Amino acid sequence: MENELIIHNVSKTSATGSYILNNINLALPRGSRLSVLGPSGSGKTTLLRMIAGLDTPDSGDIRFNGVSILDLPPHKRNFGMMFQDYALFPHLDVFANIAFGLKMKGMSKRDQAPIVEQMLSLTNLKGFENRKVDELSGGERQRVALARTLAPGPRLLMLDEPLSALDRVLRKHLLDQLTQILSRLHITTIFVTHDHEEAFAAGAQIILMNQGKIVQQGSPDQLIHHPVNDWIKSFMA
Ligand SMILES: Nc1ncnc2c1ncn2[C@@H]1O[C@H](COP(=O)(O)OP(=O)(O)OP(=O)(O)O)[C@@H](O)[C@H]1O
Ligand SMILES: [Mg+2]
């Protein structure tokens, strides 16, 4: 399959000179789903921020459909990113939150409505249009965040720990819901987590990160049964 997103030799160092990302190389086929797994501070969010254009690499290139996107500002990349804390607008209702990206694109309210309807239905939120987001449960908020991210029709979807704000008991159930929604979409997706089970359920391919490096890429089976070093073996245990 043709590679849609290519990350080539991307590095970033902090002000003190330590690596935040250390020579990252990655190729994602169109429509694929990748899980990025790694401990806290391993560089997962930074990697997503670079792809989204919210942060710039010190060296290396990021290409989408064969074209370098480093000079494109975030809004012109047409990628969707759902943040760790969802970053919903508390003063807006569910409808306005979901419609936000469409409004930013200059779309009329009349044209926004059917897309928001479609998103409400995709995420099982019909009837929630006029609810305030700070009166929703964690799981409902997560679905509003997903609907808002998907509404503008992004070419690439990035989910940064989409379940981390939720109760343990809810997580499994919502992970199932989320993967069901994703499998209906055929959109290239990067799913970030520090939880093995979530990573395995969300992506057929996993990259394991530690200290700004990709330490192994493979299927869940390869990571569990053929870890390439002792750190991976103990992280996966
Ligand atoms: N702008 C920055 N300047 C300096 N250091 C940074 C910056 N952004 C992130 N870092 C550092 O880079 C490392 C990677 O951070 P990042 O947020 O990407 O990790 P993460 O894998 O997403 O962690 P978590 O699982 O806790 O969300 C951390 O050590 C962090 O402190
Ligand atoms: Mg993070």
UniProtKB/TrEMBL annotation:
<dbReference type="InterPro" id="IPR003593">
    <property type="entry name" value="AAA+_ATPase"/>
</dbReference>
<dbReference type="InterPro" id="IPR050093">
    <property type="entry name" value="ABC_SmlMolc_Importer"/>
</dbReference>
<feature type="domain" description="ABC transporter">
    <location>
        <begin position="5"/>
        <end position="236"/>
    </location>
</feature>
<dbReference type="GO" id="GO:0016887">
    <property type="term" value="F:ATP hydrolysis activity"/>
</dbReference>
<keyword id="KW-0547">Nucleotide-binding</keyword>
<dbReference type="Pfam" id="PF00005">
    <property type="entry name" value="ABC_tran"/>
</dbReference>
<keyword id="KW-0406">Ion transport</keyword>
<dbReference type="GO" id="GO:0015408">
    <property type="term" value="F:ABC-type ferric iron transporter activity"/>
</dbReference>
<dbReference type="InterPro" id="IPR003439">
    <property type="entry name" value="ABC_transporter-like_ATP-bd"/>
</dbReference>
<dbReference type="GO" id="GO:0005524">
    <property type="term" value="F:ATP binding"/>
</dbReference>
<keyword id="KW-0472">Membrane</keyword>
<dbReference type="GO" id="GO:0015697">
    <property type="term" value="P:quaternary ammonium group transport"/>
</dbReference>
<keyword id="KW-0067">ATP-binding</keyword>
<dbReference type="InterPro" id="IPR027417">
    <property type="entry name" value="P-loop_NTPase"/>
</dbReference>
<dbReference type="GO" id="GO:0016020">
    <property type="term" value="C:membrane"/>
</dbReference>
<keyword id="KW-0408">Iron</keyword>
<keyword id="KW-0410">Iron transport</keyword>
<keyword id="KW-1003">Cell membrane</keyword>
<protein>
    <submittedName>
        <fullName>ABC transporter ATP-binding protein</fullName>
    </submittedName>
</protein>
<keyword id="KW-0813">Transport</keyword>
<dbReference type="InterPro" id="IPR015853">
    <property type="entry name" value="ABC_transpr_FbpC"/>
</dbReference>
<dbReference type="InterPro" id="IPR017871">
    <property type="entry name" value="ABC_transporter-like_CS"/>
</dbReference>
